[in-house]
């Protein structure tokens, strides 16, 4: 009798401790963003406090196996120059969000797969984390990467060393591994990846399950949410066994908190598999009931209706879900209550005076673009700086303050890109060698498409003109018959001129 009570008491004590540990682990939501997919996705829009943005994919450069790239297309520097990645990340942090760096992916080589120099692998991970002020690394291991056990051992060793250095610097790195799953759970290759990471000394925050593309393992008529739940329960048992084989006892509650779920919203890669809004509701309910530590989705780029011009909804798109929905509907359903709850407002609050508006004076010497001028006209895609932020014109505009309050953001002529960054300064005009094009002359007649040089800059005629100086275009006049070339356009022209 006493022995039975003791055993029962120990079980309840362990269960309570397990639940407490799971609660302390924290839960979070984050949408994957395909950073290099065009059109480039404005992931800094509509970020809530505590949400994460999972940027994919940080991979090896196809032309240099130990060099970094975004998606195999852009270096860290060119990603910033081409689609303002640094500024978008800064905007996410301003809104209270966090950045997760996701490596690998299906169509690229994860850094540890391509590179065999462990120090360079570690430096590669560190460069991504430090550049974007991130403390979370998501190892997306799939496709050929998943079958390379030698690369897996390198990855485990490099990530463990990365975490050790980060701990010593006082900025620990949270590490997740993202793996494919079907209703039977993880593949043997996936389980091997988890085991090698743990054996290599990686402090694994969790295993993120790609609950998508179930194929024949999904029963006829079974919903995608139900298949996801079945796959999660199967993987839970598998991962628990891996920990047990390594001599580590992990409670059920703690283990659920170390599992993440990532569906592919809308039409999956396999015809007949469609993750609907109802599936999102059901999956969120399961995640809440089981104590899942993380929910994500692939991808924010796709969280919108395809519209009437998309003819075949069974064809997977990188830019829409293939289901009837409002923009952002999947993110709203999956993210609800996944971040920390807001504290209840205290009673009898003393009235607080509205703060006085603080004048922010923009310094042209430190602004990457011209400071906004109420008397200047701006064409579509022109960029300016105003009160410490960079804005881009949606259409021709004059006199419309970029930060003018509007009830609907669609009514504003400007898109907020992000803050002016430390170290920003005006980009020096690219020097165009004389003779590249004829110098402008008031006596010449110019036809549409003719190009000339004026004050060292390239201009192109928009229509027939004579005697019209390009100086008006320099000042922003939209009725000028000349359009000036940006630095990037000039660089391309000069590059082509050098190419035989």
Report on the architecture of this protein.
This protein is of the alpha/beta class and 500 residues long. The protein is built from 13 helices and 22 strands. An eight-stranded parallel barrel has the order 1-2-4-5-6-8-9-12, surrounded by five helices. It has a three-stranded antiparallel β-sheet with strand order 14-15-17. Strands 19-20-22 form a three-stranded antiparallel β-sheet. The termini are far apart.
Please give a handful of descriptors for the protein shown:
TIM Barrel, 8-stranded parallel beta barrel, Seminal Fluid Protein  PDC-109 (Domain B), alpha/beta, 500 residues, 31% helix, elongated
State the separation between the terminal residues, measured CA to CA.
92 Å
Instruction: Determine the structural class based on helices, strands and strand pairing.
Output: alpha/beta
**Given this structure, which CATH class of the largest domain is correct?**
Alpha Beta
* Biggest sheet architecture: 8 strands, parallel, barrel
CATH fold annotation of the largest domain:
TIM Barrel
Count of helices? 13
* Poorly predicted runs of 5 or more residues: 5-16, 340-358
Number of domains: 3
**Overall pLDDT score:** 88
Overall number of strands: 22
How are the strands of the largest sheet arranged? 1-2-4-5-6-8-9-12
- Architecture of the largest domain, CATH level 2? Alpha-Beta Barrel
Determine the CATH superfamily of the largest domain: Glycosidases
| Proportion of beta-strand residues | 15-25%
The global form is: elongated
Helicity range of the residues? Answer: 25-40%
């Amino acid at each position: 009798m006493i022995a039975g009570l003791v055993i029962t008491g120990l079980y309840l004590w362990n269960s309570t401790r397990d639940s407490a540990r799971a609660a302390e682990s924290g839960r979070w939501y984050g949408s994957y963003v395909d950073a290099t997919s065009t059109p480039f996705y404005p992931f800094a829009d509509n970020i809530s406090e505590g949400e994460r943005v999972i940027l994919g994919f940080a991979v090896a450069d196809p032309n240099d196996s130990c060099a970094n790239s975004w998606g195999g297309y852009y270096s860290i520097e060119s990603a910033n120059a081409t689609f303002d990645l640094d500024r978008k990340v800064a905007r996410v942090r301003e809104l209270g969000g966090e950045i997760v760096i996701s490596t690998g992916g299906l169509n690229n080589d994860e850094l540890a797969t391509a590179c065999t120099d462990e120090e360079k692998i570690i430096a590669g991970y560190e460069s991504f984390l430090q550049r974007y002020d991130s403390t979370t690394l998501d190892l997306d291991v799939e496709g050929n990467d998943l079958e390379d056990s030698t690369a897996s051992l390198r990855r485990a060793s490099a990530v463990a060393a990365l975490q050790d250095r980060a701990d010593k610097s006082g900025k620990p790195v949270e590490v997740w591994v993202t793996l494919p799953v079907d209703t039977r759970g993880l593949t043997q290759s996936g389980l091997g990846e988890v085991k090698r990471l743990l054996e290599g000394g990686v402090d694994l925050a969790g295993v993120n399950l790609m609950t998508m593309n179930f194929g024949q393992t999904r029963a006829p008529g079974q919903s995608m949410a139900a298949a996801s739940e079945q796959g999660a329960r199967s993987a839970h048992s598998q991962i628990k066994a891996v920990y047990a084989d390594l001599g580590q006892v992990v409670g059920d509650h703690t283990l659920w908190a170390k599992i993440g779920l990532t569906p592919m919203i809308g039409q999956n890669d396999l015809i007949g598999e469609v993750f609907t809004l109802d599936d999102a509701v059901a999956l969120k309910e399961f995640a809440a009931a089981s104590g899942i530590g993380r929910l994500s989705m692939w991808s924010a780029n796709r969280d919108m209706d395809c519209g009437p011009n998309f003819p075949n909804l069974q064809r997977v798109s990188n830019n829409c879900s293939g289901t009837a929905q409002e923009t952002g509907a999947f993110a709203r359903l999956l993210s609800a209550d996944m971040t920390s709850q807001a504290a209840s407002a205290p009673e009898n609050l003393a009235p607080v005076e509205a703060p006085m508006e603080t004048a922010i004076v923009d310094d042209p010497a430190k602004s990457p673009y011209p400071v906004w001028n109420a008397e200047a006209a701006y064409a579509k895609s022109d960029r300016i700086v105003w009160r410490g932020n960079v804005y881009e014109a949606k259409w021709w505009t004059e006199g419309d303050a970029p930060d003018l309050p509007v009830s609907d953001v669609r009514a504003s002529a400007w898109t907020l890109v992000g803050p002016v960054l430390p170290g920003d300064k005006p980009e020096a005009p690219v020097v165009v060698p004389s003779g590249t094009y004829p110098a402008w002359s008031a006596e010449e007649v110019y036809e549409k498409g003719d190009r000339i040089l004026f004050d060292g800059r390239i201009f192109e005629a928009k229509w027939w003109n004579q005697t019209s100086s390009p100086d008006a275009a320099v000042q922003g006049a939209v009725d000028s018959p000349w359009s000036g070339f940006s630095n990037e356009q000039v660089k391309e022209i000069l590059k082509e001129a050098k190419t035989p």
